[in-house]
Amino acid sequence: MSETTDPRDRLIVALDVPGVAEAEALIDRLGDAATFYKIGYRLAYAGGLALAERLVAVGNKVFLDLKLHDIGNTIEEGVRAVSGLGATFLTVHAYPQTMRAAVKGRGHGLKILAVTVLTSYDDADAAEAGYALPVADLVAKRAAQAAEIGIDGLVCSAAEAAGVRRIVGPDRLIVTPGIRPAGAEAGDQKRVMTPGDARRAGIDHVVVGRPITGAADPRAVARAIVAEMA
């Protein structure tokens, strides 16, 4: 479990915006209310990797949510390259071969997080994708494999966090997307939880996007989430 000294580090703000200019504007509006930022596909491919380096250079933390999955050698070398950017977290999909390769490639303090099952999936989605197991069982299986392989942490729904914690023990990180403050719209997330409930469930970091990025006052929302988790 994370021993974060700054409570703001428990909130990861998802920079789910079209480009670097919009991301920088949001970061300016957040000011000192946020210290940890997630950069996903859209922003990464629009100049976000250079932004990640700039954020790290001024003392912020970065979560590169790239969900890597490929043949082992490609993953190992790709993770090794990402390690040079100074990011704190990088996601890979929780397939055993992919996780083993990512562990071999990590360096420079980079922590690898394995994505168990996307929080937009429910049992019907898993069945449609060809999985024989319901979501909860699939999450449990992948969490056990990740722990055995030596992954630093797991990305899972807050609804599954308590079960994942029992499987992986106290020393691995649990990072949760699909967090929605009380009264916020769920959007395309099917397995959601409030920030306070997430913290009580033993989650180390929560990822929040639209409730902050779409707010009239993003700084106030970010501060309220941090206070609720505390």
Automatic annotation (TrEMBL):
- As recorded in UniProt, coiled-coil segments are none
Where, by residue number, is the active site? K67
Q: In which pathway does it act?
A: Pyrimidine metabolism; UMP biosynthesis via de novo pathway; UMP from orotate: step 2/2
UniProt keyword terms in alphabetical order:
Decarboxylase, Lyase, Pyrimidine biosynthesis
Provide the Orotidine 5'-phosphate decarboxylase domain boundaries. Answer: 10-225
In this chain, substrate is annotated as bound at 16, 38, 65-74, 119, 180, 189, 209-210
Pfam families xref list: OMPdecase
The cross-references to HAMAP family, in alphabetical order and at most eight, read: OMPdecase_type1_B (MF_01200_B)
Self-association and partners: Homodimer.
| Function, as annotated | Catalyzes the decarboxylation of orotidine 5'-monophosphate (OMP) to uridine 5'-monophosphate (UMP).
Q: Which family does it belong to?
A: Belongs to the OMP decarboxylase family. Type 1 subfamily.
Q: What is this protein called?
A: Orotidine 5'-phosphate decarboxylase
Q: State the species of origin.
A: Methylobacterium persicinum
